[in-house]
């Protein structure tokens, strides 16, 4: 039903400070700005920084992950270790590093995937949910598939156009938290049909330019275009 991730939006208290962070430390390029937001090119996905304002807002304290080619990972670690107290975790051969942006979002860089760019995409987003079973049902209706369930923590990993981690309130690796009121955009060939598949399980459905936006029971906004 969904074939790609278009954007992830984060809320920035001070837009200039957040912009400088992503330009300086992650070398992301601005592709568009104005109306209280800055949009960066993050490979296959846009990373949006948005001042507090009208809904949908950007997510707060969101844990998300950039993909970097494995042969670039060590360079990222060495570079970022000069400025940040990094946490590193080895997922059976694929390593990830974790650090925080000025607004408290946990930024992960994982040595996964291919390509030549230093950062090739956003491959994971963590959402905080009140009821894990309810959220699982909703996202499975959107075509996501369960790939892992937490044994020691109330968490669930779903595979799809982006990996989604659904967490009931808790702390994860590097004391990260799942994001609140996260705004995510997806590629959909038939946005109306996607929205119809979850109409009875969401709190709001809104037609927008070239697509449909829904709000899930946990306050996350999902746009299909």
List keywords for this structure.
225 residues, alpha+beta, 8-stranded mixed sheet, 4 helices
Q: Can you summarize this structure?
A:
This protein has 225 residues and is an alpha+beta fold. The chain has helices spanning 15-26, 70-81, 132-141, 191-198; strands at residues 4-11, 29-34, 37-42, 45-50, 63-68, 87-91, 94-100, 106-111, 121-128, 145-149, 155-159, 163-167, 183-187, 204-208, 211-215, 221-224. Strands 2-3-4-1-13-16-15-14 form an eight-stranded mixed sheet. It has an eight-stranded mixed sheet with strand order 6-7-8-5-9-12-11-10, covered by helices on one side.
Describe this structure in words.
The chain is α+β, with helices and mostly antiparallel strands. The chain is built from four helices and 16 strands. Strands 2-3-4-1-13-16-15-14 form an eight-stranded mixed sheet. An eight-stranded mixed sheet has the order 6-7-8-5-9-12-11-10, with helices on one face. It is globular and about 50 Å long. The model has no long low-confidence stretch (mean pLDDT 96).
List the topology elements.
Elements: E1 4-11, H1 15-26, E2 29-34, E3 37-42, E4 45-50, E5 63-68, H2 70-81, E6 87-91, E7 94-100, E8 106-111, E9 121-128, H3 132-141, E10 145-149, E11 155-159, E12 163-167, E13 183-187, H4 191-198, E14 204-208, E15 211-215, E16 221-224
Parallel strand pairs: 1-4, 5-8, 9-12, 13-16
Antiparallel strand pairs: 1-13, 2-3, 3-4, 5-9, 6-7, 7-8, 10-11, 11-12, 14-15, 15-16
Strand content: 35-45%
Number of distinct helices:
4
Note the quaternary state here: single chain
Helix content: 10-25%
Number of strands: 16
Record the strand order, biggest sheet: 2-3-4-1-13-16-15-14
- What is the approximate shape? globular
What is the CA-atom radius of gyration, in angstroms? 17 Å
């Amino acid at each position: 039903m969904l074939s790609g991730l278009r954007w992830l939006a984060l809320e920035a208290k001070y837009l200039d400070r957040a912009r400088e962070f992503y330009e300086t430390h992650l070398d992301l390029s601005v592709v568009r700005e104005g109306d209280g937001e800055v949009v960066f090119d993050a490979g296959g996905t846009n990373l949006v920084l948005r001042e507090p304002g009208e809904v949908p807002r950007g997510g707060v304290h969101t844990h998300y992950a950039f993909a970097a080619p494995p042969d670039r990972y060590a360079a990222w670690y060495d570079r970022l270790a000069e400025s940040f107290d990094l946490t590193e975790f080895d997922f059976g051969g694929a390593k990830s590093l974790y650090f925080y942006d000025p607004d408290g979002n946990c930024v992960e860089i994982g040595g996964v995937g291919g390509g030549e760019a230093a950062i090739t995409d956003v491959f994971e987003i963590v959402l905080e949910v009140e009821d894990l079973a309810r959220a699982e049902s909703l996202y499975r209706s959107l075509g996501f598939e369960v790939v892992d369930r937490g044994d020691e923590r109330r968490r669930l990993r779903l595979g799809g156009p982006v990996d989604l981690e659904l967490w009931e309130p808790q702390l994860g690796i590097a004391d990260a938290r799942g994001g609140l009121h996260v705004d995510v955009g997806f590629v959909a060939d038939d946005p109306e049909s996607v929205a119809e598949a979850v109409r009875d399980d969401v709190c709001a459905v809104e037609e927008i330019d070239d697509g449909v936006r829904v709000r899930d029971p946990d306050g996350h906004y999902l746009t299909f275009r």
